[in-house]
Amino acid sequence: MADLKEETTVDNQDSNQVEETVETRKPVDPSLEGIQLYYEKNKKMINYVGGGLALVIAVFVYFKFYHIPQLEKEAANEIFWAENFFQKDSFNIALNGGIMVNSPDGPKQMKGFLQVADEYGMTKTANLANYYAGVCLMRTGKFEQAIESLSKYSGSDDIIAPIAIGAIGDCHMELNHVDDAIKYYMNAADKSHNDFTSPLYLRKAGFANEQKSNYKEALDAYERIQREFPQSTEGREIEKDIAKVKALGNL
């Protein structure tokens, strides 16, 4: 009798489970079409993906509208001291920091351009710090390191962007990589069409071509200055350079 009772209980439990399963597996309404039908068939997957997408959006909003602005503010405060020493031609201090300065919050150890670029890498200020660091390294004779830092700068400013590219050219000239220097000078000249940087780097490209006895290429650069930037400082002096390369190259 006990065995029979146990079997009856098990059967009832199995029956209940089957009934529950049948109830939870509701059939899809055959009248549904298109998006509604797709949603009903894939409800669990869509809800899962939707939840993940909402999380991604929330993280993006947090970083864009809170975290990055906070970092930007901190980076701007930190780079102030390095820029101050840069303007005084104290390039090693500006680059590496380390000295004590008096901030509004009291004495603190200043950060150099290298540290600002490293610690605030997601900010515009860190991008600018790469440019400054490259110039400091170039001015202290560390040309290969300067090229590395300057190459990290990715701004589009009409003046700073071509100067950063042209500074890489200057480093290559110091390293006697004349062909590379010419390439960067021409890129710098074309980066922003203005009367300051364009004729400056066209003239440097012309001079570098002279070092390689590429007199035709040098003449092309000089004549661009005469034609496109006649009112610039270089444009007012370029005739003597044109006459020189014509004579040297029998052009």
Description:
The protein has 251 residues and is mainly α. The protein has two domains: 41-142, no CATH class; 155-251, Serine Threonine Protein Phosphatase 5, Tetratricopeptide repeat (Alpha Horseshoe), CATH 1.25.40. The chain contains twelve helices and two strands, in the order H-H-H-H-E-E-H-H-H-H-H-H-H-H. It has helices at residues 2-24, 34-41, 43-87, 91-96, 113-119, 124-139, 143-152, 160-174, 178-191, 197-211, 215-228, 238-249; strands at residues 97-103, 106-111. The longest helix is centred in the first third of the chain and has 45 residues, at 43-87. The model is unreliable at 1-25 and 28-34 (pLDDT under 50).
Q: Which features characterize this protein?
A:
Serine Threonine Protein Phosphatase 5, Tetratricopeptide repeat, mainly alpha, single chain, 251 residues, 2 domains, disordered N terminus
